[in-house]
């Protein structure tokens, strides 16, 4: 199945309200042709609403949806030519896999022979040619989602929409299918919007990640940038783990436990503040038995995560997370005394403002 | 799964012993149930099945079955089957509409609870009081009739059909529709909103959704419900007896008449033969349903 | 364009609302008018004035009172007996004898295919024997009624058990040292309380409305007595019928509300009360 090259998708100042709740508060987002953008955020942040507006499953209270230069805001879903993959249970239970995939073609009045041929092709594309004659209840969750993907792609849509397609699967299948989706998306070259609450998923799959909160885009950028240079405290806390360390801002840098760290936004006013420090920016130095100081503490636990490990260090008045290669972590078993070093990456500052929405 | 260390010999010796003992103990747990249904369900059914082969003085006979060929039994069979079919289809149709109207509302809403509760009561409502309720409302002295008549609509112009089979059918709907609501709601609850959205994203409209997705998915449940309603009408006795007390047009009345004929000609064996006929008919319908279900719904 | 979009979805919503209103209105007309007719009739005086005379004179018919008490007792006994018989058996089958589940289901649904009039034909000789050798109390009808309510109660309880993981729950309780009795009473029953309430209510409604079996076996339960009394004094008879319907309805609504509150505080897992064929298809 050869795909024509992707089209550009523009969401312009979309607003959506449910009664008094504002689900989308003027969202603008442009997805380049063939690009995969992941919308990431906690539940209720508006990411799913954005996707449903693009799909035409919900109506906008304001703003426009433009696909391939054409305003589709007023079009109902069935005339938008979008392929959609849902969280789960979206396969028609009374149709076998290939019939599910062929359904969209049937709606497009493709002939029976051609329909079946293209359905089988689409199933091959997702690596499921052999289960073409199975019903949904005879397939695993991962297989069902692959069929759903094949079904969405078989109609050769202009846009592919993925609404948390992996969240109902177990970890291993999730990671594999995630990579599979990306491979197929690149192969087909289709413009894709991927909605998820799983930051790892978003960072792994997307060309650009958009972090959302309260119906607004907090930050939109390539995964590495979102991770290493979070634009707001919310992004810093939502994407990846973050240590919150008390410090003092003075003259364009922040002093945290005796260490001077550069700021992401240097123009911040002086005064006490909380610095958000990534666990990867914390390294451990052993044999600190005799030492004392603000950065000396005791290892509480070592969590083995595979190639890397996460070490929790008790500093007396607070605990700090450090992440490092497992080989390095194994030198500091629980109970040993260590000294911390903070790498001087630019950090974000959070002021003790009224209840931050995160955490 | 992790009994790798267990000596093979012990397993081989221990299994059958342990398994055998547990086997018998487990069965003790279901004994009361099967004893009860054995005595009060299967035994009476057997009594009917066997009794149908004996005449009044206790000798073996096939006459009771031969009597099923009496023209009034044949007529009653046709009448009962038709009445049951019509009220099952009618009840299923209107009940399904009502059930759909319920599921499209709030699942925890007041309306749903009220309708479901009312259905629970009305599905068991019947007999002489139900007959009276209709006589008092749409009967020839009922206020609905008087109101309609005074507005130029005399629905009894061609006879008072309330006391005929068409009237019985209408009255049956009063418990058939609620029964349909009760049995069809779970099926409707099982319909996932994603299916509609998927249909739309694939280019289908509302008609396509009902024709290709929701219709076929609901069809087996619907037919199953029709079967249940059919059996319900088929076995109804009190209501029809309250409306039509002459001529025994339906099979259940024929049984009652044969058990305790007021003219003194009780034919208990014949009653049992009719009873067997009724069971056979319902069983045949059930088998047809099962075959249909197996053909149409391999995905269940 | 945005306006056009809105109208697509709004039209659909309006259509649905109209459909619902029409359906509910028609249902209300069909179901309430006969009930209203009964209420109207039971409060009609000789000269056409409104009176509660029929209602207050119910007490003057001792046979009626006896029949009412008998039916209520029967409803109670039948419900309890049904639960005692069905719940442990169904739980046990799920836990230990899953190979029996089809047979139990078949047996429980059997009364649907055996008309009550047929069943009573077979029960007739048994009740003659019971009457002469054990007891001829009307309460013996409960034996037959348990059979009649089996299909409805089976479905209700099966739905309840289907919504919880019986095996894991009981294994957890067993591992904590609970006896089977405790497992049943303290673990299973509280978790399927909704289903048990539903089953109980269906039995109560069925027993209060039962006529065929009692009539053929020559016992005077509520419905049989209603027919008798209806010949002598239709007004009182209808008043009793309305009262019994209202009683069953209030009972059901009350339970539905208790159940509804419960369900909301628990998880959403129990939204599918029934066991529709569609339900299993997703997993």
Low-confidence stretches of chain C: 1-5, 264-283
Largest interface: B-C, 97 and 93 residues
The whole-angstrom Rg of chain C is 23 Å
| Biggest sheet overview of chain C | none
- Shape designation of chain A: globular
- Give helix % range of chain A: 10-25%
Q: Give me the CATH architecture of chain C, please.
A: Orthogonal Bundle
Specify the biggest β-sheet of chain A: 6 strands, mixed
Q: Total helix count of chain C? A: 12
Mean pLDDT over all positions of chain A? 87
Put simply, the count of helices of chain A is 9
Low-confidence stretches of chain A: 354-359
Characterize the structure shown.
- With 359 residues, chain A is of the alpha+beta class.
- Chain A contains 9 helices and 20 strands.
- Chain A has helices at residues 47-55, 97-107, 112-125, 141-154, 171-188, 199-205, 223-228, 233-238, 326-329; strands at residues 9-18, 21-31, 36-40, 62-67, 70-71, 82-85, 159-163, 191-196, 208-213, 216-221, 243-250, 253-256, 259-262, 271-277, 282-285, 296-304, 308-314, 319-325, 337-342, 348-350.
- In chain A, the strands form 4 sheets. Chain A has a 6-stranded mixed β-sheet with strand order 6-7-8-3-9-10, sandwiched between helices. Chain A has a 5-stranded antiparallel β-sheet with strand order 13-12-11-14-20.
- The longest helix of chain A is centred in the middle third of the chain and has 18 residues, at 171-188.
- With 300 residues, chain B is mainly alpha-helical.
- Chain B has a single domain, classed as MetI-like fold (Orthogonal Bundle), CATH 1.10.3720.
- Chain B has helices at residues 8-51, 63-66, 71-103, 110-122, 127-138, 143-150, 165-189, 193-201, 206-235, 238-243, 251-259, 268-296.
- In chain B, α3 packs across α9 (206-235) and α4 (110-122) crosses α7.
- Chain C is mainly α and 283 residues long.
- Chain C has a single domain, classed as MetI-like fold (Orthogonal Bundle).
- Helices cover 77% and strands 0% of the residues of chain C.
- In chain C, α6 (141-162) packs antiparallel against α9 (193-208).
- The longest helix of chain C has 41 residues, at 2-42.
- Chain C is globular and about 70 Å long.
- The relative contact order of chain C is 0.12.
- The model of chain C is unreliable at 1-5 and 264-283 (pLDDT under 50).
- Chains in contact: A-B, A-C, B-C.
- The interface between B and C is large, with 97 and 93 residues.
């Amino acid at each position: 199945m050869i795909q024509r090259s992707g089209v550009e998708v523009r969401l312009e100042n979309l607003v959506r309200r449910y009664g008094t709740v504002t689900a989308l508060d003027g969202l603008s987002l442009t997805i380049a042709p063939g690009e995969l953008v992941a919308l990431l955020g906690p539940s209720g942040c508006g990411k799913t609403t954005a996707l449903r507006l693009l799909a035409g499953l919900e109506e906008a209270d304001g703003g426009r949806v433009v696909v391939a230069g054409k305003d589709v805001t007023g079009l109902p879903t069935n005339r938008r030519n979008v392929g959609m993959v849902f969280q789960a249970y979206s396969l028609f239970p009374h149709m076998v896999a290939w019939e599910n995939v062929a359904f969209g073609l049937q709606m497009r009045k493709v002939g029976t022979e051609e329909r079946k041929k293209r359905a089988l092709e689409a199933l091959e594309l997702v690596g499921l040619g052999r289960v073409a004659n199975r019903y949904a209840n005879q397939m695993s969750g991962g297989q069902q989602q692959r069929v759903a993907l094949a079904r969405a792609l078989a109609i050769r849509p202009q846009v592919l929409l993925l609404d948390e397609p992996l969240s109902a699967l177990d970890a291993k299948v999730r990671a594999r299918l995630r990579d599979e989706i990306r491979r197929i998306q690149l192969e087909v070259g289709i413009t894709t919007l991927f909605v998820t609450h799983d930051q790892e998923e978003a960072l792994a799959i997307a060309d650009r990640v958009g972090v959302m909160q309260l119906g607004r885009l907090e930050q939109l950028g390539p995964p590495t940038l979102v991770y290493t240079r979070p634009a707001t405290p919310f992004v810093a806390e939502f994407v990846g783990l973050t240590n919150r360390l008390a410090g003092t801002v003075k003259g364009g840098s922040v002093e945290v436990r005796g260490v001077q760290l550069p700021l992401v936004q240097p123009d911040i006013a002086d005064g006490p503040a909380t610095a958000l420090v990534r666990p990867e920016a914390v390294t451990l130095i052993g044999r600190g038995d005799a030492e004392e100081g603000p950065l000396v503490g005791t290892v509480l636990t070592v969590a083995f995560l595979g190639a890397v490990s996460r070490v929790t260090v008790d500093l007396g008045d607070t605990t700090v997370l450090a992440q490092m290669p497992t080989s390095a972590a194994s030198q500091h078993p629980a109970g040993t005394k260590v000294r911390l070093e903070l790498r001087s990456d630019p950090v974000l500052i959070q002021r003790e403002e009224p209840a931050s929405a995160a955490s | 799964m992790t009994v790798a260390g267990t000596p093979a010999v012990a397993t081989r010796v221990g299994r059958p012993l342990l398994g055998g003992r547990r086997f018998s103990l487990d069965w003790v747990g279901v004994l009361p149930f099967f004893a009860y249904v054995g005595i009060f369900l299967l035994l009476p059914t057997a009594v009917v099945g066997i009794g149908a082969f004996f005449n009044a003085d206790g000798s073996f006979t096939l006459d009771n079955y031969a009597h099923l060929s009496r023209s009034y039994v044949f007529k009653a069979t046709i009448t009962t089957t038709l009445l049951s079919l019509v009220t099952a289809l009618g009840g299923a149709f209107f009940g399904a509409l009502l059930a759909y109207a319920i599921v499209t509302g709030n699942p925890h809403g007041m309306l749903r609870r009220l309708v479901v509760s009312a259905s629970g009561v009305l599905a068991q409502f019947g007999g002489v009081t139900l007959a009276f309720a209709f006589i008092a409302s749409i009967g020839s002295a009922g206020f609905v009739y008087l109101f309609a008549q005074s507005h130029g609509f005399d629905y009894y112009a061609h006879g008072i059909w309330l006391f005929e089979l068409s009237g019985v059918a209408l009255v049956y709907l009063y418990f058939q529709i609620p029964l349909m609501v009760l049995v069809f709601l779970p099926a409707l609850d099982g319909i996932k909103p994603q299916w509609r959205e998927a249909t739309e994203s694939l280019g289908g409209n509302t008609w396509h959704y009902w024709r290709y997705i929701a219709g076929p998915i609901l069809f087996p449940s619907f037919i199953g419900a029709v079967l249940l309603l059919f059996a319900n009408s088929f076995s109804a006795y009190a209501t029809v007896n309250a409306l039509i007390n002459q001529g025994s047009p339906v099979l259940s009345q024929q049984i009652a008449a044969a058990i305790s004929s007021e003219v003194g000609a009780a034919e208990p064996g014949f009653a049992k033969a009719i009873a067997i006929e009724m069971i056979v008919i319902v069983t045949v319908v059930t088998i047809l349903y099962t075959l249909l279900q197996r053909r149409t719904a391999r995905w269940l | 364009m945005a306006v056009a979009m809105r109208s697509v979805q709004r039209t659909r919503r309006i259509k649905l609302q109209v459909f619902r209103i029409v359906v509910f209105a028609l249902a209300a007309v069909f179901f309430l008018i006969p009930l209203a007719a009964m209420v109207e009739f039971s409060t009609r005086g000789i000269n056409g004035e409104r009176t509660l005379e029929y209602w207050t004179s119910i007490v003057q018919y001792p046979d009626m009172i006896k029949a009412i008490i008998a039916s209520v007792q029967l409803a109670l006994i039948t419900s309890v007996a049904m639960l005692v018989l069905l719940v442990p058996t169904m739980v046990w089958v799920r836990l230990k004898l899953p190979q029996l589940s089809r047979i139990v289901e078949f047996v429980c649904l059997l009364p649907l295919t055996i008309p009550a009039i047929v069943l009573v034909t077979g029960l007739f000789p048994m009740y003659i024997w019971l009457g002469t050798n054990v007891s001829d109390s009307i309460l013996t009808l409960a034996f037959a009624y348990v059979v009649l309510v089996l299909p409805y109660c089976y479905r209700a309880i099966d739905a309840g058990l289907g919504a919880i993981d019986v095996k894991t729950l009981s294994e957890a309780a067993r591992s904590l040292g609970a006896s089977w009795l405790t497992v049943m009473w303290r673990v299973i029953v509280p978790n399927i309380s909704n289903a048990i309430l539903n089953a109980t209510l269906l039995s109560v409604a069925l027993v209060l409305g039962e006529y065929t079996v009692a009539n053929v076996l020559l016992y005077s339960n509520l419905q049989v007595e209603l027919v008798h009394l209806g010949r002598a004094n239709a007004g009182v008879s209808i008043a009793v019928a309305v009262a019994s319907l209202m009683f069953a309805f209030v009972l059901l609504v009350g339970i539905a509300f208790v159940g509804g509150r419960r369900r909301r505080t628990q998880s959403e897992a129990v939204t599918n009360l029934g066991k529709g064929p569609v339900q299993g298809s997703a997993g």
